[in-house]
TrEMBL record:
Residues 1-39 are annotated as: Disordered. This is MATE efflux family protein. Belongs to the multi antimicrobial extrusion (MATE) (TC 2.A.66.1) family. GO terms for cellular component: membrane. It comes from the Eukaryota. The keyword Transmembrane helix applies. One of its GO terms (molecular function) is antiporter activity. Coiled coil: none annotated. It holds the Pfam family MatE. Keywords: Membrane, Transmembrane, Transmembrane helix. InterPro entries: MATE_fam (IPR002528). It comes from Talaromyces rugulosus. The chain crosses the membrane at residues 83-112, 133-155, 167-184.
Amino acid sequence: MAVATPRKASLPTEYTSLLPNPLDEHDSTSPDESEDTSTGHPMLAELWLLFKRCVPVILAYTLQNSLQTASVLIVGRSSPENLAAAAFAFMFAACSGWLIALGGTTAIDTLASSSFTGSTNKHDLGILLQRGFVVLGLFYIPVAILWAFAEHIFLFLGQDPVLSRDSARFLLCLIPGGLGYIYFESMKKYLQAQGEFCL
């Protein structure tokens, strides 16, 4: 009586195929592959999986940038001066505040991904999120002070007094939204690290 010996798993090399052979019965299917393989061809199945996962991310980024787009469109219909003030204020906000939020949450993205996949304690991911809230919230305090006194800074830099006044008023209204933007970015990275892409 012949005893079946298990096949040795070969180590992957640079010549190993990234997509499994669909005819190989010994490969176990992962949960991602079992989502939808009705297309037949492995490359089409992979493209369909990527499409399903990227649509919610695209929608999230579209909604994220809709604040600036909608504000500029609405303000731009009132007068060219108001459009200039809104555009100038958003440019200053992006350079001084939004980039801090994006840079800080990129660190959360890196740490959260490695914590979720490599750590035995999954609660570390929540601790990273809480620390991100606190640290980025503390970094936002000087930004909020800078925005509150932006008119003086703009005048010091030689900007038009009317543009400086209107842009500073616009930035004053953006101060509460900046903290919400930081929390939104942190939560987005927290969910993406766990593979949660659905809206």
